[in-house]
Amino acid sequence: MTSESSVTFFAEPSRSAPAEPANARWKIADIEALFALPFLDLMFRAQEVHRAHFKAGEVQRSTLLSIKTGGCSEDCGYCSQSARHQTGLEREALMPLDEVLEHARAAKENGSSRFCMGAAWRNPKEKDLAAVIDMVKEVKKLGLETCVTLGMLEAEQAKRLAEAGLDYYNHNIDTAPERYGEVVTTHTLQDRLDTIEKVREAGINVCSGGIVGMGEGQVGRAGLIAQLANMDPPPESVPINKLIAFPGTPFADSGAIDPFDFVRTVAVARITMPGSAVRLSAGREQMSDELQALCFMAGANSIFYGERLLTTGNADTDADMRLFARLGLVSI
Ligand code: SAM
Ligand code: DTB
Ligand code: SF4
Questions:
Q1: Which of 299, 315, 289, 317 minimizes the C-alpha distance to 58?
Q2: Could you identify the atom of ligand 3 that is nearest to the CA of residue 79?
């Protein structure tokens, strides 16, 4: 597998005439057609695919921890941690190992199977990477799967993370290719794809997804899913985030997405990436139990579990466990 063949930037020349390589597994037109299905038909298809690949009702839980917060050089328009946006967020330096382990032990006790550590960096510096490698090793010793999200990586850094036993690397593509430059200007989609390729070549599982609710519309959502589903192979884990509109960011006033369009996005991710875990990610705190149940019906089989995401709150854990009991969901 060469880096050119496995992760390619499927450019869309214009909104009306999207294009993809002739050998693409998923044509954008086919993905748009899925979005256009009557809701009940789409849900039925998603259920069929889900049940053919997973045990229905099994949901994996990951806990997030921000190990370095704020002051990021990048200008991602949705992010509370960019130094370029006035969000009032207090910066925090890299967390010491013992504090990280306290959080990891609590996550394990609460029943999470994976611990995800996030840092607000464009890319990790040598000293920082060495500290994160120690974190990965020690968190693994607790019997948790590990995931980190540290920004762009060099091939050699990905290799060292793999040697430390890292299970997943999260690096989202966030939005459709043709919109990337409207959301971020300090790095390119190709930079993100290059890092994903290095992670893949190091033998680490890829976690990559995106954000909906940034005013993108159905065509934009189809473009995002096409880019993910046409990776070869698709990411093992696909987080679908609903924008948390932080005051002070360029996307502060994005209108909320129709909840059914959010569910449709989950369903289309499930159908096009049948073997991947689809994670119901940011924005769950604002979702009703009924909406979350629809997302599970649509094929979501993973959540972020714990009182916090990175810089903001997450759904209450007691409420989550009550919902699991009411729906007969099983944590794995
Ligand atoms: N700096 C690293 C990076 O950009 O990959 C890691 C941290 S970054 C906060 C991780 C992901 O969180 C982003 O790619 C984005 O998908 C998600 N995210 C950040 N802010 C968000 C928001 N306001 N609403 C929803 N998702 C968000
Ligand atoms: C992902 O896709 N979502 C998580 C995780 N990967 C790192 C982050 C969500 C962040 C939500 C906004 C915040 O807490 O700042
Ligand atoms: Fe920095 Fe990541 Fe936020 Fe972009 S998404 S500003 S790279 S922390």
A1: 299
A2: 3
* Cβ(174) – ligand 1 distance below 6 Å: yes
State pTM to two decimals.
0.95
- Two tokens, residue 302: 């993973």
Is the separation of the CB atoms in 194 and 3 below 8 Å? yes
Given pLDDT bands bounded at 50, 70 and 90, which one contains residue 9? Answer: low
For residue 253, what pLDDT band results from cuts at 50, 70 and 90? Answer: very high
Catalytic site positions: 72, 76, 79, 116, 147, 207, 279
Question: Which among 173, 167, 131, 166 has a CA at the least distance from the CA of 152?
Answer: 173
How close is the Cα of 81 to the center of ligand 3, in Å?
6
Tokens 């920082």 belong to residue = 128
Q: 8: pLDDT confidence band, cut at 50, 70 and 90?
A: low
Centre of ligand 1 to C-alpha 40, Å, is 31
Task: Using the mean position of ligand 2's atoms as its centre, give its distance from the Cα of residue 22 in Å.
Answer: 34
The pLDDT of residue 1 = 35
